[in-house]
Design a protein that fits this description.
The complex is a heterodimer of chains A (324) and B (473). Chain A is mostly helical and 324 residues long. Chain A is built from 13 helices and no strands. The N terminus of chain A is likely disordered. Chain B starts with a helix and ends with a helix.
């Protein structure tokens, strides 16, 4: 019946039908059982995700207490034997040393370069915007592809790097043939790929800083270095630290770049923990032993990250207090 | 409110229990799934007269490595399907990933592939866990195997290379037949005739001569119009593949052993005084006459350097040189000749080999069809076609090696047939069969790199032997 207006039903009864001839439709009341179920349904994706993470992790952890290997498909229970064996192996400590050297070296260089690049881009205008676009190109390349590309470029006889260095009398460098050269070359590739990531984070930080302290410093005649040391860096530090945490964690877990570039050699000079774990678990098929390596690496990354995240929290709290 | 909190906790607890259930189930299921049960071979089920069409309508899934031998096989697959009515589906992977893919697939306990390519060394790794079908019963069953397959036609050392008792240190040629020889490679010296002629060099007959010639080419070739040429291309990457071609061949020709077997106990022997001296000399040869960036050299680089006239010699698989030597294949084609390489003391031409074999997944549900495929792929007809029409050289069958058309084709490459015939009888697996082969040889390659880098050969090899003693013994 045109012109007739429906009355809204009382909550809980939920029976009122919509008007036949238009007007405002009635809202159907949601039954109580569905309302109470809703929060549980909403956490289902999170539960599935958590299960997807915990299941392989738990299974891996379970395998580490056995001596499961291709040569021993019916394994014995060894308890913490695998961990004890790993921690008493000189090879593990060599790998740990290489892994830390790599992670510290890569994260440090990337942080310094990334912040420097961000500062440069923050100052310039058109050139900065163009460079910004170019800068993110390495991030578009899979690290393993970047490593293969660099491997070719670093070839002593046919690589473009030595070709470019030749006019300066520096041709013929055996980039990845010496232990130090191999480690530095691997770090250089990591720096090439990931410095833009740090730069982008730092640039985002720089652009979000309040202008007034810098204007005040300029009015007071503060120099660039003073402003950078006393204002920019402390205020930017939380952003930089986020980048450091990401890069340090990632560098501790590095596999692709080093494996593609040096396979862990020459000798064991670039044999990081991830490559050793891969060789043990996949190549040599000592599954339990290989997984134990990965669990140890996980523990190291977890502890280091926890310390860094706590430090980041303190820094952020301090920054928040300063702002108040 | 309290009630809600209680419900939520209970719900989470139930959720956690549900999430843990598959974990507990998996734990209960044991490791790597159920093992094949029963001692009888599926070959025993094949009875009656031999029939190529026995499994028509079936599909065989093959995992293959990217290789000229594979190209020859794929080019002829239609003939197999016509002969048997069996379809073949295949995946081809580059060598860098191939064995990882195969290893993971086999260790998962699934039968994704019925047949696959493998080397004899892989038998030592895949055989003991029970992943490989023993082909012996299939070969012996005349209902499953046609008379024309002719087992006697295989070079006996090749058939023996894939036969093992699965006991560490036990010699090859005894026990189960875990794969069939399909294509192989001897390790010999190939050289650039142009640079040898210009510098007045002759192929080396001893290891000392080889080191001298390699050094002489590196020193003199660039000044004689061969810019950037070095002496000898040999592999150097941190991989088992570095040890097995030229290095192991020369090592064996010097009468040296990787391991000794004493009372069933396998002991590392790569740190004997003679082995230390040889390894030091090899590293020295690479330093003075080897490729720049040697530590990353695989057979691809070695082969292409010979073809690009960057290497005066190649001490590696004969196929690696052959693919550069054929007409139009590379700038050096037509100028590459073959030589058996330096002899050891007493004239030894003991040569290590790489053998591309074909194996069957022990968990295959399609064994009868898979066996027909293996039989066809290693049969005379296909192998002859592959050798003559394609690049499936180094025949595993005597009849193909003696085939006049094949010989005519190979005569175009100077010294190839003579070299092949000189080393064929002395070519065999020179390693001691044992399950930790890949760990041992990868670590050995790493040790070689360290010695090349200047570390003391004796202490590096003692360290290696000490480490391997606990793993292999």
């Amino acid at each position: 019946m045109p012109g007739r207006t429906a009355t809204a039903p009382e909550a809980g009864h939920g029976a009122a039908a919509g008007p036949e001839g238009g007007g405002k439709p009635a809202v159907r009341a949601v039954p109580a059982w569905r309302r109470s179920l809703r929060p549980y349904l909403l956490i289902v994706p999170a539960l599935l995700l958590t299960g997807g993470i915990l299941y392989p992790f738990g299974l891996g952890l379970y395998y580490t207490v056995f001596d499961f290997a291709a040569s021993k498909p019916q394994p014995d229970l060894v308890g913490i034997g695998n961990y004890r064996r790993i921690l008493t192996q000189p090879a593990f400590w060599d790998s740990a040393r290489v892994t830390v050297a790599y992670a510290v070296g890569a994260a440090a260089v990337e942080t310094v370069l990334g912040v420097a690049v961000a500062l440069l881009l923050h100052r310039s205008s058109l050139v900065g915007r163009v460079l910004e676009k170019i800068l993110i190109l390495p991030l578009m390349i899979a690290p393993v592809i970047a490593a293969i590309m660099w491997k070719l470029m670093l070839q002593p006889s046919v690589g473009v790097i030595n070709h470019l260095l030749e006019p300066f009398g520096l041709g013929g460098v055996q980039w990845t043939d010496t232990p130090t050269g191999a480690l530095l070359s691997s770090i250089a590739v990591d720096v090439w790929v990931y410095t833009p990531f740090v730069a982008i984070l730092a640039l985002a930080g720089l652009r979000s800083l309040p202008a007034s302290p810098f204007e005040a410093a300029a009015v007071d005649g503060a120099g660039w270095w003073f402003t950078f040391r006393r204002l920019t860096l402390p205020m930017l530090w939380p952003y930089v630290l986020v980048a450091v945490i990401f890069r340090f964690m990632d560098s501790l877990k590095v596999f692709d770049i080093i494996y593609a570039l040096t396979e862990g050699g020459p000798g064991d000079s670039t044999m990081v923990l991830q490559i050793r774990a891969y060789l043990e678990a996949i190549r040599f098929q000592r599954y339990s032993f290989g997984i134990s390596y990965m669990i140890v690496l996980w523990a190291v990354v977890y502890l280091v990250t926890m310390v860094l995240v706590r430090y980041l929290g303190r820094i952020q709290n301090r920054a928040a207090e300063v702002e108040r | 409110m309290d009630m809600h909190a209680h419900d939520r906790r209970r719900f989470l607890a139930l959720g956690a229990a549900a999430a843990a259930t598959p974990l507990l189930t998996a734990c209960g299921a044991g490791f790597g799934g159920d093992r094949a049960t029963g001692d009888g071979s599926a070959a025993d089920d094949v009875t009656g007269p031999f029939d190529w069409k026995r499994a028509r309508g079936k599909t065989v899934k093959a995992l293959l490595n990217k290789h000229p031998y594979t190209d020859a096989l794929i080019a002829d697959l239609k003939a197999f399907t016509e002969k048997t009515g069996i379809k073949v589906e295949y995946d081809v992977f580059p060598e860098d990933n191939y064995f990882d893919k195969l290893t993971v697939d086999l260790s998962s306990g699934r039968a994704s592939y019925d047949v696959f390519m493998l080397g004899a060394y892989m038998v030592w790794q895949y055989g003991p866990p029970g992943w490989l079908e023993d082909l012996g019963p299939w070969m012996r069953n005349s209902s499953a195997t046609g008379a024309e397959w002719d087992q006697e036609d295989f070079f006996p050392n090749l058939l023996a290379a894939d036969q093992w008792s699965l006991k560490a240190g036990a010699p090859l040629g005894q026990g189960g037949q875990y794969a069939l020889p399909w294509g192989w490679e001897t390790n010999v010296v190939a050289y650039n005739t142009e640079v040898f002629k210009k510098l007045g060099l002759k192929p080396a007959e001893t290891f000392d001569e080889l080191r001298e010639v390699a050094g002489a080419i590196t020193r003199r070739a660039p000044g004689a119009g061969f810019d950037g040429m070095y002496g000898v291309a040999v592999r150097g990457s941190r991989s088992w593949a570095t040890i097995h071609p030229g290095f192991m061949t020369m090592y064996a020709r010097n009468g040296l052993k990787d391991f000794t077997v004493d009372g069933g106990k396998v002991k590392p022997a790569m740190n004997s005084p003679e082995a230390v001296a040889f390894t030091r000399d090899w590293a020295e040869m690479v330093k003075k006459g080897g490729p720049p960036s040697w530590t990353s050299y695989t057979w691809y680089q070695c082969s292409s350097d010979l073809g690009a006239k960057k290497a005066g010699m190649l001490f590696d698989a004969d196929t690696a040189a052959y693919f550069q030597a054929v007409k139009g294949a590379s700038p050096a084609s037509g100028k590459i000749a073959f030589h058996p390489g330096p002899k050891g003391p007493g004239g030894s031409l003991a040569t290590n080999m790489w053998i591309w074999s074909l194996g069957m997944n022990a968990r295959s549900r399609n064994k009868s069809a898979a066996w027909l495929f293996l039989q066809w792929a290693t049969g005379k007809e296909h192998l002859r076609k592959g050798a003559i029409e394609h690049n499936h050289i180094d025949p595993v069958r005597k009849s193909v090696g003696q085939d006049a058309t094949y010989k005519d084709k190979m005569r175009a490459i100077p010294g190839f047939i003579e070299t092949f015939e000189a080393v064929v009888d002395e070519t065999r697996i020179q390693f001691t069969p044992q399950e930790q082969f890949f760990d041992a040889t990868t670590s050995w390659a790493a040790a070689l790199q360290e010695i090349y880098g200047g570390k003391n050969a004796s202490s590096v090899l003692n360290g290696l032997a000490g480490d391997l003693a606990s793993k292999v013994g």
